[in-house]
Amino acid sequence: METPWRIFEETQPIKLYAKNQMIYLQEETAIRFYYLKKGRVKIFLSSPDGLEKTLAVLQPGSLFGEASFFDGKPRVSSAKTLEKSEILSIDRTGLEHCFRQDPQLAFHLLRHLSGTIRMLSAQVDSMAFLQADARLAQLLLSLAEDNRVPLTHEELAGLAAVSRITVSRILSRWARQGWIATGYREVLLYHPQALARIVPHQTLY
């Protein structure tokens, strides 16, 4: 499927990353942003006492690290791979070259940044106002592609800001009801309409 980021694949070098390899660290200066061609990447916050909060688990085709790149401020999160990955990095010189090749790229980046802001706003609303089952339902619906969410229970727990035990308990209940099925590192949505009824309409991404 054609994506607006194809210009990056055509013009920028690919770097291979091992599983659990750091890509960038919270608080460092951003001199480039990234495009995930293959693999999975976790975006997370770290507290001074070593605790982590997962913000996103990215799939191939995702841009990341772009906010700090554009505003020139230190990174507010860290990124590391969850499996072997192929990642392109884009610095200012590379981006200017891409703009010359594809003037529409600037519009696509603005739309992408707007979507990211909307998603983060919805996450804040979710954590502030929704119960655990509604948070998890919202998360599954927002991440599903072809009714499939390729995440583990632990990864879902981090994204929904609930415990892994809570995620497993809720998913087991939904599986018994025939709404979902769980497999190796994935959740299949058999009845997304039922999940949607759990989530207040205005909170869906």
TrEMBL record:
Residues 130-193 form the HTH crp-type domain. This is Crp/Fnr family transcriptional regulator. GO terms for molecular function: DNA binding; DNA-binding transcription factor activity. It comes from Hydrogeniiclostridium mannosilyticum. The lineage of its organism: Bacteria, Bacillati, Bacillota, Clostridia, Eubacteriales. GO terms for cellular component: cytosol. The keyword Transcription regulation applies. It comes from the Bacteria. Residues 17-97 form the Cyclic nucleotide-binding domain. Keywords: DNA-binding, Transcription, Transcription regulation. The keyword Cytoplasm does not apply.
